[in-house]
TrEMBL record:
Family: Belongs to the FAD-binding oxidoreductase/transferase type 4 family.
Keyword Flavoprotein: yes
Protein name: 2-hydroxyacid dehydrogenase
Name of a matching Pfam family: FAD_binding_4
InterPro entries per record: FAD-bd_oxidored_4_C, FAD-bd_PCMH, FAD-bd_PCMH-like_sf, FAD-bd_PCMH_sub1, FAD-bd_PCMH_sub2, FAD-linked_Oxase-like_C, FAD-oxidored/transferase_4, Oxid_FAD_bind_N
Domain FAD-binding PCMH-type: 39-220
Organism superkingdom: Bacteria
Key words, A-Z: FAD, Flavoprotein
Cofactor(s) in the UniProt record: FAD
């Protein structure tokens, strides 16, 4: 965008009105820095359309004026995908005014929503209809469905229900030139050509702007059981997962692992947390079961824990006796992000691995870090039930910028090369954004990169949608 700033803003104002534009710096600040405070950008205007029609009109104007656009949901991402760069030419198109729940269909087990609806509001609307929407993550009180779909968010229930992509039946998308693709179908089966829905889900706003979605609902989960388990090592955690699955089946909705280093860090930095067990253990697992029947999860989880203790896979365990204790367990797990930021500068590795290879990967990664970076502690935790490991390495606060950049590059190379050697991925649930964009060139094959560039060139030939992200 060049000297046409004023005229474009006037034309945008004609589309979205006073409520749809954010021009002053103070109000823009919330849109210009990401949640981890890693990236900050500049923009001449934040545009907040109130409908699909307004979004399409905004995109047509941007297409005509060759104005780059950064789509943004709740701005809770971890990779900088929703933040403009510092040149001041990119405008933000925020979905936060498109926050209506349009339909809840309990018979079809679907919900139709606009992209700016907060995830927690979707969960509550499902519960009000005696249904269950399983996507759940730490930012659910502020992240939006559009952002969840754009990043193919994961969270704690992937083991049973899958990622955001698995929870959407259809989407509506505004393309770079302002055309609207109406893929808002509530169909469980549709084998009539290429799967365009899944092309846009996970594309991080680089192929189109998701404006509405049809989501899957499930029967209400009246029974729930949660346990905290102490283990000798990560090896027992993987074996315990297999044993628990054999007894509890697909009623397991969460199986979360954490090291003692993570536990002690949380106790230091997160208020009102305490150890669920009387002793200290090298590793811990948080297990949660859910079912439509109220008593069944507790019975099954007790059986699994008894079997684990008898087999020597667990050293100690406690079953939550009420919802308050359950929430205390989850507060520990959800406190990791807050605690690690206070403890140091975390180098976050959101990797996916075959579950059968988790143990050997952790062993080898621990050895590599100990040999090459003995001064740096490792925070090893994650959604081990679906193979998503957050193998984070903490840098101390106060490092000089050049030293921090050097260590970041060297540690990332070490961990990501190893993940790829184990046939894993360098991004399991957080996406690519700016954080992993350059690394993607190293780890994607020539064929994959060519296909991705071809898709981008077809849908966004002028490179207007979220430039500088993913590719």
């Amino acid at each position: 965008m060049t000297s046409t700033h004023p005229s474009l803003i006037e034309r945008l104002h004609a589309v979205v009105g006073d409520a749809g534009l954010v021009l002053d710096a103070e109000r823009q600040a919330a849109y210009l820095t990401d949640w981890p405070r890693k990236w900050t950008g500049r923009t001449p205007v934040v545009v907040r359309p109130n409908s699909t029609e307004e979004t399409a009109a905004v995109m047509r104007l941007c297409h005509q004026t060759r104005t780059p656009v950064v789509p943004q949901g709740g701005n809770t991402g971890m990779t900088g995908a929703g933040i403009p760069d510092m040149d001041g030419a990119q405008i933000i198109v925020s979905m936060n005014r498109m926050n209506r729940i349009l339909e809840v269909d309990a018979t079809s087990n679907t919900m139709t929503v606009e992209a700016g609806v907060i995830l927690a509001s979707v969960q509550q609307a499902a519960a009000d209809a005696n249904r269950f929407f399983p996507l759940s993550l730490g930012a659910e009180g502020s992240c939006t469905i559009g952002g969840n779909l754009a990043t193919n968010a994961g969270g704690i229930s992937v083991l049973r229900y899958g990622n955001a992509r698995d929870l959407a039946l259809g989407v509506e998308v505004v393309l770079a030139d302002g055309r609207v693709w109406d893929g808002l179908r509530a169909l469980r089966k549709d084998n009539s050509g290429y799967d365009l829905r899944n092309l846009f889900i996970g594309s991080e706003g680089t192929l189109g702007v998701i404006t509405r979605a049809v989501l899957k609902l499930f029967p209400a989960q009246h029974g729930r059981a949660t346990a905290w388990v102490g283990l000798r090592s990560h090896k027992e955690a993987v074996a315990l997962l297999s044993l628990t699955q054999s007894i509890c089946g697909d009623r397991i909705i969460a199986f979360e692992m954490m090291s003692e280093f993570g536990m002690s860090m949380i106790l230091r930095h997160v208020a009102d947390t305490q150890r669920p067990l009387s002793g200290v253990h090298p590793y811990y697992v948080l297990i949660e079961l859910a079912d439509a029947q109220q008593e069944l999860p507790g019975t099954l989880l007790e059986e699994a824990l008894a079997a684990a203790l008898e087999a020597g896979l667990a050293d100690d365990a406690v079953l939550a006796v009420n919802d308050r204790q359950r929430q205390q367990f989850w507060k520990i797990r959800e406190g990791v992000s807050q605690a690690q930021l206070r403890e140091g500068h975390p180098l976050k590795h959101d990797i996916a691995l075959p579950i059968a290879r988790l143990v050997s990967f952790i062993d080898e990664a621990n050895a590599l870090i100990a040999a090459s970076f003995p001064q740096l502690p490792v925070l090893n935790f994650g959604h081990i039930g679906d193979g998503n490991l957050h193998y984070n390495v903490l840098l101390p606060h106060g490092l000089a910028d050049d030293e921090r950049e050097r260590l970041t590059a060297e540690v990332n190379l070490c961990i990501h090369d190893l993940a790829i050697a184990y046939r894993g991925s360098i991004s399991a649930e957080h996406g690519v954004g700016r954080l992993r964009r350059d690394e993607l060139r190293r780890y994607k094959s020539a064929v994959e990169k060519d296909l991705m560039r071809s898709i981008k060139a077809t849908l966004d030939p002028d490179q207007l949608l979220n430039p500088g992200k993913v590719l």
